[in-house]
Amino acid sequence: MSLYDQDLDPTPANHVALSPVSFVERSAEVFGDLPAVVHGARRYTWAQVRERSARLAAALRAHGIGRGDTVSVMLPNTPEMVEAHYAVPALGAVLNTLNTRLDAPLLAWQMNHCEAAVLITDTEFSPTMARALALLRDEHGRTPLVIDVADSEFAGPGERLGAHDYEAWLAAHAPLPRLEGPADEWDAIAVSYTSGTTGDPKGVVTHHRGAYLNAVCNAATWTMPHFPRYLWTLPMFHCNGWCFPWTVAMLGGTHVCLRRVDAQSILEAMRLHRVDHYCAAPIVHNLLISAPAAWREGIDQRVRGMVAGAAPPAAMIEGMARLGFDITHVYGLTEVYGPAAVAVKRPGWAEADLSEQTRLNGRQGVRYALQEGMSVRDPQTLAELPADGSSMGEIMFRGNLVMKGYLKNPAATRQAFAGGWFHTGDLAVMEPDRYVKIKDRSKDIIISGGENISSIEVEDALYRHPAVMACAVVARPDPKWGESPVAFVECKPDAAVTAEELIAHCRTLLAGYKLPREIRFEPIPKTSTGKIQKFSLRERARSASAIE
């Protein structure tokens, strides 16, 4: 034993488990009179949000909810969703945010898998949730307590499914004196399900320590000031809103809730509420670029956006720069709490021309300050590859911003953590300045005549055509080359282009073997966060490489 260990044990005075719940208590204490939530006509201060969250926690506790119990929520970006992110973890319970675009069988499967004891659901989703609850009861024998949320901004009637109305339930319980958080920071804070493109989805279990540290990292990475006005364009059900429910609480900021995401609603909220920060996938940023200039009138404040969820096309980064929006590119996965790497903008980059700035900012970048490791490694040997911009391997992470593992799936957990690193499945190179650049998902590389074609590179070329709103490139079987690229394209409103014109455009930017052999003008399936579902397109193309 070292002399520095003698009579120097941790005590409640000098050692407290890290939990983002503490941010809510602090903001209520020191910024209690400041705005915390804006939603339609509703306004709540930090003191009111803390009280409402403490009432929700008290109501859940009265129902017997405590450490390790699961509370599922089927909610859009509303005040109730914000409150769930504070109340549920305060009890040591686990928050399961359900994707509002899933079908009933998958929702029932997820709630059964995580053993949901309570469901809080918005009445807009009652038709789907009624079927999901029936399946949950009949096929799995599980009947959670159901609480209905009748949101003030939902115009429809909405069937009530549960035993309690949310507002009445809160009013019936005195608030807990304090939102405490867990005794052990390794306790689970949330379980979030991956998309499950084949087979059952995996339940990603995250912990209080990681959520706390990533919330802090968000602020440090973005150099966010106190009192940001943050617009909820990113669904909070996706990776717990990349931990921003807790980042905004830490900074005493304002959650500007947005029930539905479209360009006009986003820009109107920015103007009305002086929004200065938001997060979104590339497709949402493209909507803003394509929006009529009149919708942006009156937005004279500095607006900072964060983009992730898919590799951003160069045309998107250039387009946002021309609008005057300051875009930060981050990279991550559900398993690392959302963003865990960032294309940090170095001072010298501002002197480069727009094309070079776009190239630099389009990289996935370097690890978050509180993530201990990010590396490009050979997926078989785990050897670290040189930072030469050409040696391609798999991006791997290690550190506090990595999940606990997959719920009830020890084999998948062991595989994901093989060799002491979390394996992302993303193929990339490390450039000489130590910034990572993704080349593709391992399953999205197209092998044509023995040559590797990056679907991202082909998509970047297509996005540079002014008529293209969204595109995705996948492999299709080719009798001569084995595989060849096929592109699915959605055009901008009032824009028209032929397949021949797009291929000719790509020919000016790509080598001949990389050109799409076919262009299909078809709707492109996307997740609720705007991420393109390539597995569906591979099925359409009947790709021989569509093995997940």
TrEMBL record:
Name of the protein this chain belongs to: AMP-binding protein
Keyword Ligase tagged: yes
Taxonomic lineage from the root: Bacteria, Pseudomonadati, Pseudomonadota, Betaproteobacteria, Burkholderiales
MF GO annotations: ligase activity
Keyword Lipid metabolism among UniProt keywords: yes
Signal sequence range: none
InterPro entries per the UniProt record, alphabetical: AMP-bd_C (IPR025110), AMP-bd_C_sf (IPR045851), AMP-binding_CS (IPR020845), AMP-dep_synth/lig_dom (IPR000873), ANL_N_sf (IPR042099)
Domain AMP-dependent synthetase/ligase: 25-407
Domain AMP-binding enzyme C-terminal, chain residue ranges per copy: 457-531
Family membership: Belongs to the ATP-dependent AMP-binding enzyme family.
Key words of the record: Fatty acid metabolism, Ligase, Lipid metabolism
Biological process (GO), any one: fatty acid metabolic process
